[in-house]
Every structure is written in C-alpha cells, then in structure tokens.
Amino acid sequence: MKKKLHFSKELKLCFILSSLFILCCQAVFAQSNITGTVSDKSGPLIGVGVQVKGTSASTTTSQNGAYTISVPNAGNAVLVFSYIGYTTQEVAVNGRSTVNVSLVESASDLSEVVVVGYGTQKKKDLTGAISIVKASDVQKRQGTTVAESLQGLATGIRVRGGGQPGSEAQIQIRGLKNFGANNPLYVIDGLVTSANRDFNPADIESIQILKDASAAAIYGSRAANGVIIITTKRGLDGPMKIEFSGKSSLQTIPRYDLAETEEFSRLNFMAYDNAKINRQQLDLNTNTDWQDVAFRTGNVQDYNLSFSGGSKDATYFVSGGYFGNKGTVISTDFDRLSFRVNTKGTKGIFTIGENLAISSSKNNEMSGNPILDVVRMLPTIPVYDAGHPGGYGYGDEAKARTFGTNPLAIANLEDRINQNLRIRGNLFAELQLLKPLKFRTSLGYETSRDHYTYLKKDGFWTLNQAYDPAILNENRGESSTVLIENTLTFNKEFGRHSLTVIGGQSYQKDNYALMWGTKRNILQNSTTGHYYDVLDQGNEAQTGGYRNRADLISYFGRLEYNYADKYLLNAVIRTDGVSRFGPDYKFGSFPSVSGAWRISKEDFFKSSWIDDLKIRANYGTLGSSDIGAYEYMAFVNTFSAIPMGPNQNLQSGSTQVQLANRDLHWEEVTQQNYGIDAAFLHNKLSISAEYFISKTDGVLIRYPLLISTGNDGGNPFVNGGILGNRGFEFTASYVENSSEFKYNVTANLTTLNNKVLGLGYNKNKTFVGNTVTEVGQPIGMWYVLQTDGLFQNANEVASYKNANGKVIQPAAQPGDIRYKDNDGDGEITNKDKVVVGSPWADYELGLNIGAAYKGFEFSMDWFGSFGSKVFNGPRSVMDNFSDNSNYRAGVQPWTPENPNTSVPRAFYSSTINARGDTDRWLENGSFARMKYIGISYNIPNTLLKRIGFNNAKVILSGQNLITITKYTGLDPEFSNGSVFEKGFDFGAFPNLRTVSLGLNFGF
Q1: Ranges assigned E (strand) in 564-604
Q2: Do the beta carbons of residue 894 and residue 922 sit within 8 Å?
Q3: Are 881 and 271 in contact (CB under 8 A)?
Q4: pTM listed for this prediction
Q5: Which end of the chain is more exposed for a tag (fewer CB within 10 A), N or C?
Q6: 203: which DSSP letter?
Q7: Is the sign of the CA dihedral 183, 189, 192, 197 positive or negative?
Q8: For the segment 920-931, what is each residue's pLDDT rounded down to a tens digit?
Q9: Virtual CA dihedral for 7, 10, 11, 16, nearest 10 degrees?
Q10: Among residues 107, 281, 203, 202, which one has the least CA distance to residue 737?
Q11: Is 519 helix (H, G, I), strand (E, B) or coil?
Q12: Do residues 266 and 231 touch, judged by C-beta distance below 8 A?
C-alpha cells in the first residue's frame, strides 16, 4: 500500500513563494560591458570576485574564468579582483573593453572578507578575537551537526560530541560563563537560530566564531557565550551549475574487554567465598556476549544536490539533502530531509532576497543505557528466557542476581520516537539611498513542530521490575520566533580615513507551547502483536500542557574607523530589553571598544621578512538572561482544595508554591582581550596569539530554600555567583603554494583556567557527587577519599595507627584498601576527603595538515587534550566485586598467592573495597586523537569532458581511527551534561570509528 504524502499549509506556502521569487528575480538591464578572463599559472579560475571600485557593481567569473561587468565610466574605472587564497589585485580599465588578469597565490589572504555582526570586515582589519573556519574543513568530516565538526579547527572552543544518531555536540567558547548550558548564539544568514541536528552542514559557505566582547557585543544579551555566524551558499553569475556530493560511511563502537563465563564464574565464586556467602547457582552452560547483543555496525548515508546560477542582477541557490544514520546500538536511527532556497535580485538601487530552509527529521532514540547494561549483565544469563513475562532473560535471585538491564528487551519493549519539522528563513531588502548610505530591513521567521511518542509494551527487562501495563505517552510542541531588524550603514573613505557607522533596531518574539497526554493499558492485537498506539485507546488518562512567551527589543550601533591601514578603532554599544526580568530590571546596556595598530605600515618599520604585524586590544561587556520566561513571577498552584463549613464542603483555592524574586537582573560578562597578528616569509607563515580575561557578575543560579519557608515548587533563581575565566590562544599556519607539490600545516594551542570568585549569600562551597565547587577554585574539583595501596598482612592492619595510637581500619583484612586518614582522628569518614585533581584540561592542541600533488589531495587532523583527571564510572562497576556485574577480562584481584596487584581482594556484598567516592576510580584523562584522515583524487579534465562533467572527486576518509591515551574507559573524549561533574564518565556514549567513501561531482 502506498502512503499518501501530506504537506502542511506552511510547507505548501513556502514552496509556492520560493518558486515565485526565483522567477521574479531575473531582471536584467542593458549596459556597456567590459569582458575578460581571470587565471593563475595553472589555468582559469572560477568564482573570482570582480568589482568596480567604489561602487556596488560586481560579478564573478564563470566557466573558463570569463567575466562580464558593466562599468559606468570606463575611462576612470578601477576593477578589483579578489579570490580566497590569492592576492587581491586592482587594475585600471583605462578605456579598454577587455581586461585579462593573472592572480598570484597568497598563503595568508589578509583581504579575505569576514562576516561579522550586521556587516563585513576585511580579515586584516579585525580588532577583536574572531576565528575563521573553512567550510570545507567542516564538510569533509562525517557529522550530524556543525559543532561536532569544529573540534580542533579553532582556538578557544571546547567541543565534546557523542556517537548516538541525532546526538548534538556540546560546545563552549572560552570557558563557562555561568552554571547553565553555556551554548553559543548561532546566527545563520542573519537569523538568530540554532545549528543543531536539523541543519544541513553541506549548505555552509563560511563560518566565523566571535569569541570576545568587542566582536560579539553587537548581539548584546544573547552573545555572552560567544557567537557562531554561518553564511550559507549563494548562486554565482553564470549558467546553472549542478553539484552533487554523496558519502557512505560505516561506523563501529568501541568495546570493553569483558570476562567470559569461565573467568567470570571463577572471580564471582571467589568474591562469594571471601564474604562467606553461599555461591550463586550460575548457569555455566551459557556464555552470552552482551556487547554482541546490544551493538552492531552502523552506517551513514549523506547525499546532497544543489542547483545554482544567475546573472549579474539576480542569483539563486537551491539544494536538497538526505542524511540517514543507522545507529551502532540496536533499534536506534536518525533520518533528516532538508531543502534550501537562497535568492537575491538587484534593480538599480534596490536589492531584495530571501533565505529559506526546511527540514524534517525523525529520531528513533536509545532506551536505557546499553554502555552500562553490557557491563551489568552477566555472561551466564541467556538473551531469552521463556519463563519470564515477555520472554527475555535478565537473571533471577538464585542463579544471577543483578541490577542490569537486558538491552535487547528494553530496545524491543520501549519505543521512543522524536519527530521534528522546522521551517526557517528571512526576507531582506536593501536600499542604496546614497553612494555611502544603505538601509536594510529583514524579517525572519522560524517555526518548529515537535512530536514525541513513547510506547512501553507489556514485558520485563530487568530483575524485580515492578509491573506496569502498556503505556502510551504523546507530546506535541510548537515553537515560533519572529525577528524584525532594521539597519542603516554609512561607509565612506576620506583620503586616508575610512569610516563605517552602523545603527540598528531589533525585535524578537519567541513563543512555545506544549501539550501532552498519557494512557495506560494500551490494547494489543492478539494476532499480530501490534499495539494500538493512539491516545483514544487505553484508560487512566492524564493530560497537561503550557505556553511560554518571551520578547526582546534592542537598539545597537557600531563605529569602525581606519586611518591609513595603520590605526583601527571599533566601538559598539547595544541596549537590550527583555521580558524575562521584573519591571525595574528589564533593560541592560552592553558597550565595548577595541583598537589595533598595524606596526608594519609605519614608516620606521623596515623588514624584508615580516609582511604584516598588528597588535590589538579590547574591553567590553556582554549580558545574559538565560532563564525561564516567568521566573520573576510567583508560581501558583490552582489545584488545591480544602473542606470548609459545617458540612465540610470542598472549596477550591490557590497556593503560591515557589517564592518569586522580582529583583532578578542581567548576568554581566566583562571581557578583556589582547592579541597580536603577524605574517612572515611573503605571507607563507602567519601567527595569531590572544590573551583574555573574563568575569561574570550576577550569575543566575537556583538557590536552595527550605520547604518550611513556603517554597514547595522548586528553588527560585537568584543573581548569586561570580565566575572568572582567563586563557591563552595561539595559532600558527604555514602554506606552500609555489610548487606543484602544495602543502599546509596549522597548529593551535588553547589554555583555559576557570575560577569561582563568589557563590553569593555568604556561601563558600557546594558539593555535587564526588566534586566540590569552592570559591577561589575551578568548578567541580574532585573531592574524594585517598587510597594508599593494599594491606598485605594482618601486621600492616594492626600497625596502621594515628598519632594517638588508634588503629584506623581495625576491620580491614589483608588485600583490603588502605585509606588515608587526612584529619588524623583515627577513623575513615567524609572528613578525610580532600581535593585530588581537576576535570579541566591544562591545554588543548589541534594539528591540521593538508597536501596536494597533481590530482591527489591529502588531509589529516589531530586533536589533543592534556592534564585533566576523569572518573571512570564503568570501571567502578566492573572492578568493585561487591555486587553481580561482569568483570574486566584478565583482572587480577589480591590473593595471598597474588599479592603484587593494585586490585583489592574480591569481596561480595560489602563496600569496604568498592566505595564510589575514592580516588581509585580517577584516571588520567589526557588523549591525542586523529580526528580525520582522508585522501582524494580529482578525476582528470580529459576524462571529465567525455562525460560532460566540470569536476569530479573521489574521497576515502576515516575518523577517530587512532587514539593515544592512558584512560581505560571506552572514550576519554566523552560528553557530560552536568556543569559540576564535567569529568564524570558513567556510561557516556563514545565517539565512533568511521570509514567513509565519497563522490563529489559538478556540471
């Protein structure tokens, strides 16, 4: 049976408007033209920018490097030719009708145009801390999102990703600014949005990362955690170009080396015997490899097709993509369909354009945590057991008492499906009022429809599981964002002076609504086994929902001044008003100022090997309002009721359940940045160094209050913390393009130190799990008991005393762990815990290498993180012997015959050697990983002409193939959602090894 496709009204409208817009943007008017070709020593260059200096007239070279451009005054006109990787040239027309140009390759293109907030700047004129990432470096990696592909490509960013289908990487720019998510602001084609799993990275043209206040302050309150600006692809002047990229990948998940039945039973019997407890009746005829049950070879299919072209007055870019990821864990997968239309048309002084993106995704989410389940389950437990409801094996009290979960059972008995339809885009118009004055207006809109379903079927997946009937839960959420922005830009050169002034206004409205329903006792078809998974089935209905709205209104301005390319000044101020705060605190102003001095332009500077030398400094503030929409208001429960009167009639009422804080105000981030940029050896070698200091005042945190105060609805927000970050960043690049063998090497270094400067309300420290966050120290330092080897005999136990002669661990036996009595009271208690290490890396390194020879290209990226200490949660399960879990293969616990080991004696049903709050489970988290390696071959032009292609490339690549580390867990590069326990690995999903084969071609 064929399924009928149903499109929403919004989707139909977007398709119709996009088609009409493309057709309407083909206006062409005749003018006198200058023609020519642009080439380098290897031949014609396609896509070179050609502009009439001092005007908005521009075009790009098409096939064979040809161009045509209208010039108002050919006698005095100057053409500017620019191309990434080549030195920009200015050529006087002098009345000619044909101008041919040969460009020279440049290792460091300082004339490259960089997209900044509400405008552009030349790379050489930057005064703030901005990292530029090549789109090709991101797109060569196989990633679901942009963030996970940025690791190691820029300084100052910390990226941790995961290998689950549809997973989204965590990214932090220059440390933790608050105790929240610390996600950066994404701006895509001028629209404030997100670049998560529903955004197609293949559409990216350029990426800029704004890291400090001077660069990001133009975005004000939303930029406290940095800004990532993404510009998507545009059409070029010329005939239609069709581009295709396809990539197929195989993925494997790292595995533990676990004991099989023979080894497991021997160690398990030892633990029971040492505890003087009767052994389990293990099924020694079963030998289940639970990793084989839970894991599989995953694959990714990533295909993209685009059409682009246009004239000098109107261009278009249309793309479609499919991304499908079969997960490495059973019953997980992710699919995404994406569609994009970018158009732009110009008529005289008027320009209009739009950017529209539509995506539809479906994620079959993972149930349980198979990374831990494969450890908790015993090899003596069969996968299936007909004696259990549902028919799955998960142990029993007599033969296999475990708290593990059968990963196959929970995957089959739970269905978690998350679907999303997102439409986003903007419509913009520009009016060139005067030659130096331009007005731009932009209307952005984004809407997202989320549909989540959870079906729990009849059956069991773990021992002693309480019975629950079949349950269906369904959530539907809808969000929308409206963004209206108007800017006025003045750009003028006065001799050696250059001035750009931008003023603007912005309004953003965010709405979100959610409704949900749950039913129990969902009916099942006894013949097919299918569940009727709709909410009109079952009983015991429960429903709920809510709506949120937040508004932001802003006014901003920026001044850019350049004198003789030597002295650069940039000043920004933005005022934001947000509905999230009380009436007296809604508005905040965030100024910044930055300056640079290009020493190499001074007359006194004489150097034959230094091509460019610039120093810069800036100071500025940013704000943050990362809280809920109504946190300053009282939370009222309207469901309360009490009996009143002589007849005790039930009367409804309302109760305030969360105390309100009407004094909530902006978090304010103050930042300083000092940098130096230099280029040497004819721009072949370039370096950039930064030192920064930041401080966040009034950090928004939830403050714990006693229920006796009337606070029964969650802890209210307060401005109760002060955080500081400082660090150093360094990047060096060397590019050699002068010979047939071309190569480039880029290395970067990032150091970061975060420190808690205050917790507010006279609070000095806070404890979370095995960590302490203390004023004057970094967040989440490890705070545990210290171990001091193993007792080898009874005499060592008896002689381990404090200064007063008290035996510290009188109950210990030979082979038990000796703990340090740090407070000297003769007992091992929580008072003996001390800070033993930091989860934060001392420094992180990136190394990117590329080479090309004739038709072959090679690329390799390394990333390293050094100096952190991490908690190996899975090993704390495998090595504790206190309950029934599987063990590491080859583990050697202490015995009188095997005293030379660091593993204590196996002892069941006791925490004497299995405490989770000790330094025994802390390990060196340093690692170096080859993130990417790839080789490609460009098919020769002689062959391409026969099949009608302009270009074609075959790529073979791998990711995460080599990792150098002492960490014994699955992956030292794990992701953790807790700010206070960043170094805690308790079954985090690892990064996957990936091998890909790709094909790109165009015609």
Answers
A1: 567-578, 587-598
A2: no
A3: yes
A4: 0.86
A5: N
A6: G
A7: negative
A8: 999 999 999 999
A9: 120
A10: 107
A11: strand
A12: no
